[in-house]
Amino acid sequence: MFVTHLECPKCKKTYESEQIIQLCECGAPLIVRYDLKKVAASVTKQDLLSRPATLWRYKELLPVRDEKNVVSLGEGMTPLCRMDRLGAKKGFKNLYMKDEGIIPTGTFKARGATVGVSRAKELGIDTLAMPTNGNAGGSWAAYCAAAGIRSCIIMPQDAPDINRREVAITGADVYLVDGLISDAGKIVARAVQKYGWFDASTLKEPYRIEGKKTMGLELAEQFGWDVPDVILYPTGGGVGIIGIYKALRELQEMGWIGEKMPRLVAVQASGCAPIVKAWEEGRKESDFWEGAHTLAFGITVPKALGDFLVLDAVYKTDGCAISIDDDEVLAAQKELAELEGDFICPEGAATFAAAEKLLKKGWIRPEEKVVALNTGTGLKYPDTVNVDIPVMAPSDDL
Questions:
Q1: CA-CA distance, 298 to 194, in Å (whole number)?
Q2: What are the b/e assignments for 104-135, b being 16+ CB within 10 Å?
Q3: What's the CA angle centered on 76, arms 93 and 301, to 5 degrees?
Q4: Which pLDDT band holds residue 313 (cuts at 50, 70, 90)?
Q5: pTM
Q6: Which of 44, 52, 337, 391 has the most crowded CB, counting CB atoms within 10 A?
Q7: Which domains are delineated in the chain?
Q8: C-alpha distances out from residue 144 to 15, 104, 165, 206, 282, Å
């Protein structure tokens, strides 16, 4: 392993990586740092070609010391698909989708879970607790089950029913709270304090980012070690966009990609858009969003611990933040299925609606390479599809 230390992005205090630790003493998330010169000297792009098509192909840029501690369900290397029919209709010449819907547990959350749980196993952690809007809980519960680690998952009462069942079947301790993910987080914090469990909340441990950053590593490899012009990401806790930015900066430092960076777009729902509001006001951090509500349940995060990191990534890549209404999300989800055959999650659909808006505004140019991240399968969101299907008698003709 090439990890050198953990670092606070706010106060720059550093920590030894082999200790069990949550946040910096200043309260900020901790970031994993590597000796990237040694990584570049030990592995080549050509080496990757003979490795399995999972995110662990990038093991030199991941924080697990001993491969026997890796807990994997085969996650990673999801397809990068051209959206030619949808692109032609909307005016894009190079529209792509990175499809995380086919990954284990059905969402990109598996990336953070495989690395986070593997590192927890390596550090000897026996119980993880976390709040979730649904999909992260499903992923972390599954990987904890595979690792033999106990998990305690707290989710809002109105989280999708499939997520409740997904967590429960793994044997996790699962509880519902009458409130938002922020309320679930308060319960987890009290339990962690009382029982000494490890808090796996978003960005309260350093390793989820490392799993999520592999989306950026894969995109660079899939584009032939080049980068697209624009990447749109559905943003709740923001770990995905933070991770992608981190991955591309690491590749630049290793000399694997050039100086060009894609413009990163944080996409939120209009019913919960604290990052968008902060970006529009030119601020470095966001305020708590009161009355948060959207059918894109996975991005209903009123206040992200890493909001300053999301905004930093957006500012430093000349990106932007944009909010999308729920009716626009549903329209984009339906249109994508009809034109491309892809049933994607509402959070992913929001990125396509955002891309269309930004194209109409001229912020995206028609010829640019644009990647929309679909973060999960639509099969986890059956209630987003309302259809009236006629019933036929056996004797009826079409």
A1: 28
A2: bbbbbbbbbbbbbbbbbbbbebebbbbbbbbb
A3: 80
A4: very high
A5: 0.95
A6: 337
A7: 80-106+208-382 (3.40.50.1100)
A8: 26, 14, 16, 17, 40
